[in-house]
Structure prediction request, 358 residues.
Amino acid sequence: MATKGHMGKMGKTGADSDAQRALAAILATGIDDERADAAWRLMMDAHRLLLLAHHNPDPDALGSALGLADALQSYGKRCVVACADPVPANFAFLPGREHVVTELPDENFDLVVALDAGDLSRYGTLYERHKAFLDGARIVNIDHHATSTGCGIVNIIDTASAATAELLTLLLLNRGANISLDAAKCLLAGIITDTRSFEFDATTERTLMVGAYLVGCGAVPEAIVKPMYRLKPLAKVALWGRVLQSVRSAADGRIIWAIIRQSDFEESGASPDMDDGMPSYLLDTEGVQIAVLFREGTDGKTRVSLRTSGPADASKISAHYSGGGHMRAAGCTVNGDVDHAARNVIDYAVQVLTTGEY
Prediction:
């Protein structure tokens, strides 16, 4: 194994204990040394790095980017964290969120680190506006999605990780990097939200160990879970009330779906990010195996969010429409108005449940 960096103090009193160091040593072996070394050397050789979170960001994409930026800055690296879309208002638990940019200040970067997606098109308008630069850039790609093919000269893609933040924690520990309190908060946020508080079956013993390590660094789960899943502004409650009136079911109640129209946002006063959590809420309906939320766009396209339980695979359903994600949570974009998209996707979901074929 290559010579590693410094192991700084943990963010919590007493966390730099024998138990915490032992846990770090175990987790450091969870990633391939050669691949970790190749990625880390590129980062250490760079002076100014661009860290990309995919469009329509979730806390895993943003938390991974912000957590890595925090770690790299302790080595004197200059990092810019960018995302095509603004940070949602309810992600206030992410330290450093105020520094995320939606437009690049320039293209003078030695290295790009693309996080939580393996296809450059997933970085949305940032990719569209800087296509020539990004197509020719030196890229390290870190992701955990089964649909990822990799977009970097070094690709660390581990589908056994429940979140990119889990994989990134392994990388940082493997390289002996410091995980500060702020970095731990960001990384734990990515893991908690990609597992829905360790509920999804992608959660493994290692996922829980990584979570335990980050809590040992001082990150507090409640500070993430409460604003993410329990607290809702009144406008969001009003939005959900309107959308839940659109709920329909199929396949003897095994499929459930709802539609969000632009008028729902306008009349409830809700912001575009306030639909988060609704697909999972629909999935919690008794007997449901596939839950789908259709969101009407302003460009003639429909955004589709899927959640599944049982044998149904959300990523395969999404892949049918050139989307992707996880077995239990995935998404895609369908051309056409929202009602047409709903009929099309639900017909296909019924077919999947009936035949077992994708």
Observations:
- The chain has 14 helices and eleven strands.
- The chain has a mean pLDDT of 93.
- The longest strand covers residues 301-308.
- Residues 111 and 138 are 5 Å apart (CA to CA).
